[in-house]
């Protein structure tokens, strides 16, 4: 008699029912754990790439791939907005190689449609327009999610992830992961732009260093040996390149000498100090131009007033176009007669300490406008007879405009008082120069913006 088929007992059936859910739960937990580890590994790889890659293009290659992997989607695409408002299809990743060509063609068509729709008034493409075009050309069967790439609160691109699986859904977790990848993309773009700006700044810094070096070489390296005179000079720019200028020009010289020094010990000497309105590179360029033109004019052996008049006419057009002006004090000293002839183009008048009377006199003229203000300005000559012990300081407004914490200026009156003290107690021009610089720095000590302007001082004493 055949045996009946096996029928599980109630106990056997109950055991099978109890075991299956446990196994299934364990498998679910294991799968979730694997998925979590995969997502963490992918995001860690993206973070490592962000820290390690110096090439932005290489980093952007990973973005659609990582976004696809962390969401188990079919593909991802990265669009970036250009500065002219156009949209650019940057990177595409598609799991299905055969579908990739079709997807790219649809996205390129969408890009062209967005470009056509843009008006000239728009700076960046409207996100809604891009979303609509991408969704339309990919087709309704594609499950699509997009998020904006924000750099400093400005829309710089759009990251899309898509799936052709009809059962695929964009859960909150998947959306957060895509946004996280987009945020990393924004950080990479910002970092790259900062690197570009840093390279520009480094290049500019190097150019400024070269400019400062050239300008420093154009200023006298040392004071000349003028018979019967002791000299000291210093230019302290607020920036690396400044607009202050001083010079010593031999009026009669042997042009065959390579060093340009006077061959005649009794030659007259031109002493000049000037200040270009403004600071930095523009002022430095104008200062350099002024130096060359003034030296050329001084060779003509005209009077100081005529030299300034010619200089003003030559420089007027260039200065008018640059919206800058130059103050200039030009003087010529004759060692044989100890006579100083001068003319002033609206510069701070030098101070003359007369040893015999122990008084201070300002060396100024009635006429004399800024260089570059009017094409036909008139300038006036004046002269003074110097005696042994007499001392003159030529200075720029960096001294008198220097301000302390309370906003008080060092001003002309305070400078004159310190100059009188220095003439009584300092042994030579270099000591006077050091003392006056020290007093100004002491006055502005603790100020928020110390030395906001260039400071130049020339000291001349008759032995």
Automatic annotation (TrEMBL):
GO MF term set: phosphatase activity
Record has Ligase as a keyword: no
Ranges where the GAF domain occurs: 55-199
Domain PPM-type phosphatase: 226-462
Keyword Hydrolase appears in the UniProt entry: yes
Matches recorded under Pfam families: SpoIIE
Domain of life: Bacteria
Keyword tags: Hydrolase
InterPro entries given in the database record: Bact_Sigma-Reg, GAF, GAF-like_dom_sf, PPM-type-like_dom_sf, PPM-type_phosphatase-like_dom
Name of the protein: Serine phosphatase
Organism, scientific name: Chroococcidiopsis thermalis (strain PCC 7203)
């Amino acid at each position: 008699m055949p045996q009946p088929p096996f029928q599980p007992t109630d106990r056997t059936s109950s055991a099978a029912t109890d075991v299956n859910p446990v196994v299934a739960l364990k498998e679910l937990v294991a799968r979730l754990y694997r998925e979590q580890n995969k997502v963490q590994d992918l995001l860690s790889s993206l973070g490592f790439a962000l820290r390690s890659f110096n090439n932005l293009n290489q980093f952007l290659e990973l973005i659609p791939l990582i976004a696809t992997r962390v969401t188990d989607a079919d593909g991802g695409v990265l669009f970036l907005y250009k500065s002219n408002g156009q949209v650019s299809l940057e990177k595409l990743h598609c799991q299905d190689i055969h579908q990739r060509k079709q997807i790219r063609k649809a996205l390129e068509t969408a890009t062209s449609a967005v470009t056509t729709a843009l008006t000239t008034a728009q700076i960046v493409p409207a996100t809604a327009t891009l979303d609509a075009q991408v969704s339309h050309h990919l087709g309704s069967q594609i499950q699509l999610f997009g998020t904006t790439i924000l750099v400093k609160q400005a829309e710089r691109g759009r990251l899309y992830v898509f799936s052709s699986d009809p059962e695929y859904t964009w859960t909150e977790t998947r959306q957060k992961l895509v946004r996280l990848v987009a945020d990393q993309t924004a950080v990479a773009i910002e970092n790259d732009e900062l690197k570009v700006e840093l390279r520009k700044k480094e290049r500019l810094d190097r150019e400024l260093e070269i400019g400062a070096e050239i300008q420093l070489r154009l200023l006298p390296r040392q004071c000349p040996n003028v018979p019967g005179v002791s000299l000291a000079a210093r230019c302290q720019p607020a920036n690396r390149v400044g607009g202050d200028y001083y010079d010593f020009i031999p009026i009669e010289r042997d042009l065959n000498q390579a060093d340009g020094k006077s061959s005649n010990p009794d030659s007259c000497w031109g002493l000049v100090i000037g200040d270009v309105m403004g600071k930095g590179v523009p002022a430095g360029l104008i200062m350099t131009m002024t130096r060359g033109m003034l030296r050329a004019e001084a060779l003509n052996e005209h009077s100081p007033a005529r030299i300034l008049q010619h200089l003003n006419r030559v420089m007027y057009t260039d200065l008018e176009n640059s919206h800058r002006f130059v103050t200039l004090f030009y003087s010529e000293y004759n060692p044989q007669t100890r006579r100083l002839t001068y003319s002033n183009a609206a510069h701070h008048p030098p101070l003359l300490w007369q040893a015999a009377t122990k008084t201070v006199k300002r060396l100024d003229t009635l006429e004399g406008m800024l260089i570059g203000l009017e094409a036909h300005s008139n300038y006036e000559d004046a002269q003074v007879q110097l005696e042994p012990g007499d001392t003159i300081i030529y200075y720029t407004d960096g001294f008198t405009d220097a301000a302390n914490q309370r906003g008080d200026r060092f001003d002309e009156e305070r400078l004159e008082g310190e100059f009188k003290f220095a003439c009584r107690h300092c042994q030579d021009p270099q000591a006077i120069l050091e003392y006056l610089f020290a007093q100004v720095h002491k006055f502005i000590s603790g100020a928020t913006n110390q030395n906001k302007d260039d400071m130049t001082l020339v000291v001349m004493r008759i032995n």
